[in-house]
Automatic annotation (TrEMBL):
It comes from the Eukaryota. Belongs to the nematode receptor-like protein sre family. This is Serpentine Receptor, class E (Epsilon). It is a multi-pass membrane protein. It is found in: Membrane. The keyword Ligase does not apply. The chain crosses the membrane at residues 30-50, 57-76, 96-119, 139-160, 166-186, 225-246, 258-279. GO terms for biological process: sensory perception of chemical stimulus. It holds the Pfam family Sre. InterPro entries: 7TM_GPCR_serpentine_rcpt_Sre, Serpentine_rcpt_epsilon. The lineage of its organism: Eukaryota, Metazoa, Ecdysozoa, Nematoda, Chromadorea. Keywords: Membrane, Receptor, Transmembrane, Transmembrane helix. The keyword Membrane applies.
Length: 350
């Protein structure tokens, strides 16, 4: 069975002088797991209250928070088992420890597949751009969650034999590489549609509905957020993959196992700390809800910070334009006949 988040304390206590330092590190890690669980629970509540995203994307994002909380609880359970003196020679016979380890493997495999599933959801949002906002199509998120649970369960089964680690890792790397390529294509495609939507050529505007315009804008914003997540997840995934691969080696020493565990936990802590802050940075509703929450608690800011007005692509807009000019441009746009209206008028004249 693959062992992750595991440190052989018996070996360090009997054969090295690093046992006191390592045990203090585990106490610190135990405390950080508790803080991280509280933080993720809080932002999970913010996600439910802010209602920033489409139903399907919200379900996938909520799944990330749920499995991360599950992983933290599993790791807290394993640490308690280690503190109370687990028999490292018979670690595979400890039912509590092995059950917690299986939960951790399940959540890790599911978490590394969540990004491809989010990109698949954005593919559906792009394909059904005409009415995706009006018709939730809940079967999309339900099907993707089922795939994530299935992949996590299969990974637990295959990783009972540590030699199968390399195959699971190759599968995860391939899926995330494909998701990266598709993300680039979706960003380009939605930007092209956005420019067509807002272009006025030969005094004729395109016949996009307001729903389509909104959905294209939402696609671009979410893909921009996912792009930021991809950059920092790249670091986490590289460290995680290397740690898991080394942990699956039969000849790994207790010292190497401890290094893999520390590296893996560091990557996960970095991931969990940055995820919610990146989403908050990209989502105005999250910012407003967090500000309202801090005010209710009593943390009122001495100065009010006004966020700059940004466009769909996240760039700061030039606001040196009068209200009269804005409404003049809006009136001109509405007075331009659409393609279908122009065609019907030409037929009547003929």
């Amino acid at each position: 069975m693959l062992l992750i988040h595991y440190i052989n304390l018996t070996h360090f206590q009997n054969h090295t002088e690093y046992f006191p330092y390592l045990k203090n590190y585990l106490y610190l890690e135990f405390f950080l797991y508790i803080i991280d669980t509280i933080q993720f629970s809080f932002f999970f509540w913010v996600m439910l209250c802010a209602k920033q995203f489409h139903f399907n994307f919200t379900i996938l994002l909520g799944y990330i928070y749920c499995i991360h909380i599950m992983d933290n609880i599993a790791n807290i359970t394993m640490r308690l088992d280690m503190f109370f003196g687990i028999d490292d020679l018979k670690v595979y016979n400890d039912k509590i420890f092995t059950a917690s380890m299986n939960v951790s493997i399940f959540t890790m495999a599911s978490a590394m597949c969540i990004l491809p599933c989010m990109i698949i959801e954005r593919c559906f949002a792009t394909y059904f751009v005409e009415n995706y906002e009006k018709k939730p199509r809940k079967y999309i998120s339900i099907s993707l969650i089922f795939l994530l649970i299935t992949f996590g369960t299969i990974s637990c089964y295959f990783l009972r034999n540590a030699s199968n680690t390399i195959y699971v890792v190759i599968c995860l790397i391939s899926l995330n590489a494909l998701a990266l390529v598709v993300t680039g294509y979706l960003k380009h495609y939605n930007k092209v549609q956005y420019n067509k939507n807002h272009a006025i050529l030969s005094s004729v505007i395109t016949t996009y509905s307001l729903t389509q315009r909104y959905q294209i804008t939402e696609n671009i914003r979410i893909l921009r957020m996912l792009n930021l997540i991809i950059f920092y997840m790249g670091f986490m995934n590289v460290v995680l993959v290397l740690s898991v691969m080394l942990s699956g080696l039969k000849e790994i020493t207790p010292e190497q196992q401890a290094i893999c565990s520390v590296a893996l936990n560091t990557a996960i802590f970095v991931y969990s700390f940055l995820l919610s802050h990146i989403i908050s940075y990209c989502c105005e509703k999250w910012k407003r809800h967090l500000s309202a929450t801090w005010r209710k608690i009593g943390f009122n800011s001495a100065t009010v910070q006004v966020a700059p007005l940004c466009d769909t692509f996240g760039s700061e807009m030039n606001v040196n334009v009068t209200v009269e000019t804005y409404f003049d441009n809006l009136k001109t746009t509405w007075n331009v006949p659409t393609t279908s209206a122009t065609r019907q008028h030409s037929i009547v004249e003929a």
